[in-house]
Amino acid sequence: MLGITLNERLQIASSKMLTMLSQMIDVNTLFVAIHDEQTNEIIKVYNRTEALMQEGAMPFRESYCHHVCKSTADVLIIPDTTLDERTATMTITSKLGATSFIGVPIVLKHSWKVGTICGMDRTDHAFSEKEIEALHVAAVFVGYVIELERMAYVDDVTGVFTRKFLHESFQGLANQHSVVCMFVLDIDHFKMINDRQGHEFGDKVLRVIAKRIHDALYSTGILFRLGGDEFALMSSDPTNREEALTLAQQVLDLFSSPFAVDGMSLFVTASIGVSWYPECGVQLQELLRYADMAMYSAKHAGGNCIKCYDPQQEAAMRERLDLEERLRYALEHEELEIHYQPKILVKDGSIQSIEALTRWRDASGAWISPERFISIAEESALIVMLGRWVLLKACRQFVTWEEKGKAPALLSVNVSPKQFQLGNMVQTIREVIQETGMDPQCLAIEITEGLLMHNSMEIAEELRVIRSLGVKIAIDDFGKGFSSLSYLHLFQPTHLKIDKSFIDHMLHDPGQMSIVSAVIHLAHNLNMSVIAEGVENMEQFNRLKAEGCDYVQGYLFAKPLPAEEIERFASSYLKHGDKRFRVG
């Protein structure tokens, strides 16, 4: 897909072969020409002692090499270039005058012709079989050198340049230009593609993405694969921040249309981080690190966007990366905790369900907010590991309570949309049920309505399979997002959970109260139960009870508690009760 890498090794190899050929072919000129058909340019010409073309390029189709590569024969001989219709009118012919010409192509695998080895003589020269054979041997040798260079400098999966070539080419570009921009690009949720379709399919996706970027921007910048689904684009075209952002937007726009892979139309997005030399740094590692930080900032913002490196964000990014490592360690060593919060059946005040919630107290004893570490887990894909651990731990605890005769009717566990996107939730739930002996009829998973907006038909099928296991589906934080009512019919959840933000203000805001009332009646008309979360006072409870809400949850009853404490709370609650919530 890309032009070959040109370096001193190729020049040395060309020089040695031309020196050998000069002893076997008696002509005025011998040279190696390397070309790039995509840019229609001869990009380098070597003779025995030097690179004849040090800068610039000449049109490939205005060269004799074009006719060598276009020919179906393995050698092109033109006895007199001034008389041959292919070369007589060419500018180079008028400059050189009558010459005898011979050329053989340099051919790589897949029949890719990347250049020629040519000889020219001002006298009438009848090229012998021995001379032709010598040219072929030389072409094979130079082609072998080029292939070796490609193995080191061109990524085998995507055909774009490697990180190694980025390191070798950066300084030369920086020396020639006052500004060099570095763009680091990462495919959003690419792990999900590999997990669901396999790595071979994933490699094909990377290949078509790289090809689209390269084909659109090969004259603007050089594309490199850094590893996995991460790429870098290096360009000296932008001269300031605004121009850099414009180029980054051109890259992002390339993801607005689907990619065709194995007959499938695949929509993917990307996150892009931008840094530039010399303002952000003068060393390549600095630019890559800063562009990488900016890229992760783009991912944190939801992906499918561009962020420029901001020195003020570095401390926050370092703190975030540190927290990610600590979270990984805490997961691997099971240092997280699960707390449980009861859900109260409004009609009789009984504890009918219990929700498992993850809590993290670090080594210093300080509690880390779930909002903080859950978002980090989602960005780093640790959410799959975390989600499975929570589900497994909570189900084990529920089974223990059942064996003691102390279990409520239902256990609910929160599931992040990223667990569906990055993992196989159906398989995870099946494995946990089998491993723990959990009755699936006693399990509910709570999903946010944002999940419903992502690949709705695919998610609908996964939820259908989960429901077929007997597991219940609850829509958490309902009304907070932007889901269509049609999704409720498509996904058929058993419960809707009204977000706390509506409960907080419903007594003083008629609009919020109208929404709460409408959700309750909507759910009942669709044969769903309604849970109100964040209930903190009796006024809220009584109003929800009057509206027909089925379940309530909040600090009015109990905050989330560790397993031992929630067990004691439930025992006390069942024994003594609370007359405020009892009927009769």
TrEMBL record:
Source species, domain of life: Bacteria
Which Gene Ontology MF annotations are present?
cyclic-guanylate-specific phosphodiesterase activity
Location of the GGDEF domain: 178-311
Tell me which residues make up the EAL domain. 320-574
Q: What PROSITE patterns is this protein classified in?
A: EAL, GGDEF
- Residues spanning the signal sequence: none
In Swiss-Prot or TrEMBL terms, this protein is called Diguanylate cyclase
- Organism equals Ferroacidibacillus organovorans
